[in-house]
Every structure is written in structure tokens, then in C-alpha cells.
Amino acid sequence: MDAAIEQGVAWQIRLNREFRGMSQRELAKLLGTQQSAVSRLEDPSYGNHSLETLAKIAKIFDCALSVKFVSYSQLAYESERLGEAEQCAMPFETEWSDIDGYQENESPRRPDAVLHGRHSIDLR
In 3D, which of 12, 34, 1, 33 has the Cα closest to residue 81? Predict the structure, then answer.
């Protein structure tokens, strides 16, 4: 289980960084550290992610950080949902503009395609 958590956190950092069109060097600069530190954070075998660092990364990514205790059955359920679309955290500004723009008879929706640097990623 520990390895799955370590790998999952590292993968989410890399995926969300790339989703935002950021290089490791750019994220490092925003964190006030070196590119090699970001490389370590994205290494699935690292396993020493502090809550403080994860909170800083969440702030940079403009998303929330959720840390919670769950049952093993819930962990198993969530382990089935590890695709890019489920692991990529929408920036609050993007999410808010989508919610703010919906009409009274519509339901808020997650955009099917969002900007990835200069490329579009399909989140379906």
C-alpha cells in the first residue's frame, strides 16, 4: 500500500505539472527550490513528500489538497479510477468560470477538453 501511495503522489505531481504546461524548472522556481528537487518529488520511489510541500504545490496548481483516512474498500475503489482525467485537478479559476457560466436549467460540468500549454487534452 505504501508504494501505491508514493507512486500515486509522484504521478499526480507530474501529471498536473504537465497539464499546466509547466517544466520541472518552472515548478521548482515557484517552489523556491532546484529542478532536481521537483524531479525527486516526481520519482515514484521517493516517498518522502511532506504535507507542507504538497500544500505549496496545490497552491501553485490552483487546486485543493485532500488528505484523508479511508477504508480499504474505498482505497480499492479509488484505485480503479487512476486515469489521467481522474488524477488531473482542474485549476480553480477554470473550474469557477465553468460553474459561473452555466445557466439555471443546466448543471455544472467539467470541461471535456482543457488547454494544456498550447495543446488541448480530452478529459473524457
Answer: 12
Report which residue type is found at 51.
L
Specify the 3-state DSSP secondary structure of 64. coil
SS3 72: helix
Domain count, the chain: 1
pTM: 0.71
CATH number where 66 lies: 1.10.260.40
Chain position carrying cell 470541461: 111
Whole-number Å distance between alpha carbons of 60 and 44: 21
Rounded to the nearest 5°, which phi and psi values hold at 107?
A: -105, 150
Give residue-wise pLDDT tens across range 47-75: 899 999 999 999 999 999 999 898 999 88
Domain of 74 in residue numbering reads as 2-122
DSSP 88: P
